[in-house]
Amino acid sequence: MLLPFSYAVRNLYRDRTRLAQTLGGSALVVFLVMGAHALNEGMRKTLSASGSPRNMLILGKGSEESMQRSEVSEQAAGITEASVSGIYAPLGDRAVSPQIIHMANLGLPDGTRIRGLVRGVTAKALLTHPEVTVMEGHFPGPGEIMAGRLAWKRFGIDEGDLVPGTELRFDSATLTLSGIFAAPGTVLESELWMNLNDLRTLAQRETVSAVVVRLDEGDPADVQLFTRQRLDLELSAVTEQSYYARLATFYAPVRAMTWTTAALIAAAAVFGGLNTLYAAFASRVREIATLQAIGFRRTAILISFIQESLMTSLFGTLLGALAAVLLLADRVIYLSAGAFRLGFGPETLFAGLLAGTLLGLVGSIPPAIRCLKPSLPQALRD
Hints:
- The protein has 13 helices and 12 strands.
- Helix 2 (16-50) packs antiparallel against helix 8 (240-250), helix 2 (16-50) crosses helix 11 and helix 11 (298-328) runs antiparallel to helix 12 (346-372).
- The protein has 2 domains: 5-49 and 251-381, no CATH class; 62-233, no CATH class.
- It is of the alpha+beta class.
- A hairpin with a 5-residue loop joins strand 2 and strand 3.
- The strands form 2 sheets. The protein has a 6-stranded mixed beta barrel with strand order 2-3-8-5-7-6. It has a two-stranded antiparallel ribbon with strand order 11-12.
- The model has no long low-confidence stretch (mean pLDDT 82).
């Protein structure tokens, strides 16, 4: 025979200080676990979505892991277009896009200085990056620059500071913001795009950073073979997917650190909860013995204790999950590679629920078993 569920409910309010401590510990653990999971999922999904399996990156030899350090001859785009077959060519326009990646300091009209990734492109960048959509304004021409829809968050400024028509200072030049673009789920949304020739002049470069080639029916091995044959150009070809996969590997220690932090906080909460419940259950040894004396089995009392602990931890889980959704949902995290949104989905909510449930179970079973261990006569005397 089990104890009434109302017995476990009434016991929650016997010590309100202990209840508040347990609720707070559970909420903190769930908040951190959901935050760590959201960070990992957001980074993983953004970096995987940023690389297309149909895109090849032609980079300078030895710079396969960083487009910013790469230098490619300006003639490489034209030579690639003429030498490689199977390139995507809508309406006969072959998708070969030379690009410059440059970290620049820009000035706003109010004197604010911002630093971010600027990508020099031509109109062919829209062929190699079909996920890019111009939401406001138009694609940048000479003397113009275009901002990703997350760029204002990346720079820590107000959204109204980056609207079409805004003038930005780049060294001695003044650039007009021509539009806002979206590239859902990719790091491109935190970038600034401008005319390739303008950026080449302002950055004082004679080379480009990379040539992006979008294949249709072509084989990536053909592009790699082309780069190996043209020893004079000192090129290397990697798939865009593998490039961003390497970036994900580079940031693996960051993800591991978030999980380690969450695990340490969870462990502290578990041990703190154990101490609290040991003290709470120890003061009820005679009550537990009385329940056994009137006919309740130890298993029934153990289940009641677990119910009591689970209710507390699940209420804490609800508070932690609510705080995570309110404070972290749609939060943008910035890396040198770009920006990404924290990935809140069913898996993140499930991770929080699982953490709260395990916290309630692990925190209640050891102290409950210890309090049930003494024999009935000994417990009634204590």
